[in-house]
Amino acid sequence: MPVSPSTDPLAELSAAGVSVWLDDLSRELLAGDRLKELIADKHVVGVTTNPTIFASALSKGDRYVDQLSRLETQGADVDDAVLALTTDDVREGCRAFRDVYRSSGGVDGRVSIEVDPRVARDAEATFTQAVKLWETVGEPNLFVKIPATGEGLAAITAATARGISVNVTLIFSLDRYRKVMDAYQTGLEQALEAGLDLSGIHSVASFFVSRVDTEVDRRLDALDSPQARELKGKAAIANARLAYRAYEQVVAEARWQRLAAAGANVQRPLWASTGVKNPDYPDTMYVSDLVIAGTVNTMPGTTLTAFADHGTVPGHAPTAEDYAAAAAHLASLKDAGVDFADVTDTLEREGLEKFEASWAELGASVAGGMRSATGPTARSADGGSSGSSGSNTVGLLAIYLNDHYTGATGGLELFQRAAGARKDKKEKAVLTDLVRQVEEDRDALAQIMTDLDVSVDRTKVALGWVAEKAGRLKTNGHLFSRSPLSDVLETEAMLTGVLAKAAAWRTLRALAGTERRLDAAQMDALLERAERQSTALEELRVAAATRALDPRTTPTS
Predict the structure, then answer these.
(1) What share of the chain in percent tops pLDDT 90?
(2) In terms of pLDDT, which residue wins out, 337 or 62?
């Protein structure tokens, strides 16, 4: 039975042996007293970051403008600028947590930074960048985040052997988690053989939680049976508990005991993605249900605030009975028709895609910020530009906006065609509403261009319209007619378009800090709408893929 929440639930959580980390970092947080308050009053002992967090931080406030201006003047390219901005923030974060790092003996006080997700399928490139990040930040309480892809395993071993402390991220499956633990131990063994002090090497394994329920629940909804409905909202906790059982088994083995005797630190399980996506579920469930001593829970700000307000800590950690129930639940999912291995494969693939999209958004925001931070962009009284640098910036901005307007025109055609072709009434209604929204978004972009004195390039738009028509001839098994894959391919294309649109809104939001003709509040509203559109399309994509690709169904032409 859970105990009554104390006057300080986060203190109770910390006393139970859970390290409270925040999944957020920005210069706004570092510059004010907020981070100090979180450390002192909210028991926060670490911070994690990712490309999405940095892209969001860059779009808010003006604390990056001066550095962006210097980088532009120095001729830095976008990748070098991203490295400079992110490592500077993380270095300052590490320094903010120095006292925590020292008082915890190096266990906590950690700040994580992620390797470029574009190299996640290249072990050598991942390792090379891990070394670069480690040396650039230059703080002992850094964690370098490496995705737990098949290729990432070799990079984890190589980085650990080099003495780099690694936060292994994007873990979904138990099988991959066991391989992660093996990769860490192999790295420690190599480090020991090379004469390194193992006590200085730390690691956490970030097991993602809420996304599991999101994907499993979607598949259960598609099954639409009483048994399926009963199974909803339980897979994520079951999967995480079984992951902890796997951890217990590994640290009890003779191999780990030998490393521990040589001074090695355990690779602590870390519960990531703990924000609750379904409003029908308790907003602290991925914290309260995973209270296990020696683990880390990294929470987005909203979850941290919610737990601080009404979180509860169970009276005991998971028992053997809890582990048995978790295994039984995953077995029930299989019986109901949910392929859990495919769930975790899908989540890994989509996780990388989302990180790559966020990285692209970050790069676009940095590029836009560098352009707007140098050279006057304001217009002179006669309407001309006030300098050649400003003229160049306006010209580049015109190209950028016209590219997105062209994409919006082709995208609108795609949405209209998809809405007209769908047979399911509910899906047709969703797409019809999205058509309206996408058209409004294109109109909003056109007005933004007018406000910025940027003309629509009608030739480029016409060519984009022709390209969209030609895109209908994708090889989907039926060259000129619809096939069972048409819904899948169309939805994936629409989702890609919405992600690109969100990147544009983030870029314009970043420019709003220095361009008075841009309305920051409008950019925020457009971005929020794009995120809702993305969620709706993802639900349609999963449903379409299940119809077309599930071997138990019989597709029709």
Answers:
(1) 53
(2) 337
Helix axes 210-223, 235-251, angle to 10 degrees: 130
Closest CA relative to residue 361, chosen from 527, 490, 506 = 506
Which element (helix H / strand E) includes 11?
A: helix 9-15
**Residue 444 to residue 311: CA distance in whole angstroms:** 42
By residue count, the chain amounts to 557
Q: Both tokens of residue 296?
A: 């880390």
Do the Cβ atoms of 14 and 291 come closer than 8 Å?
A: no
The two tokens of residue 499 are 């992600």
Residues 6+ apart with CB under 8 A from 435: 412, 415, 416, 419
- pTM for the structure as a whole: 0.70
Using 50, 70 and 90 to split pLDDT, how confident is the model at 379?
very low
- Coil, strand or helix: which one is 499? helix
Helix (H) or strand (E) holding 169: strand 166-171
Residue 312 bridge partners (DSSP)? none
502 vs 166, higher pLDDT: 166
Whole-angstrom Cα Rg for the chain: 25
What are the percentages of helix, strand and coil residues in the chain, rounded to 5?
65, 10, 30
Residues with catalytic function: 145
Which range has highest mean pLDDT (48-62, 64-78, 358-372)?
Answer: 64-78
User: What local confidence, expressed as pLDDT, does residue 1 receive?
Assistant: 37
How many angstroms separate the CA atoms of 195 and 544, rounded? 54
**Distance of alpha carbon 370 from alpha carbon 75, whole angstroms:** 10
Tokens standing for 415? 């949405």
SS3 label, residue 140: coil
- Answer whether residue 388 shows pLDDT above 60: no
**pLDDT class of 167 with cuts at 50, 70, 90:** very high
Q: How far apart are CA 173 and CA 344, in angstroms?
A: 6
* pLDDT tens digits, one per residue of 33-51: 889 999 999 999 999 998 8
Owner of token pair 């008082």? 103
Distance of CA 353 to the CA centre of its chain: 9
Q: What is the number of other CB atoms lying within 10 angstroms of the CB of residue 470?
A: 9
User: Which of these, 100, 55, 140, lies nearest to 360 by C-alpha position?
Assistant: 55
Among residues 48, 331, 288, the alpha carbon closest in space to that of 170 is found at: 48
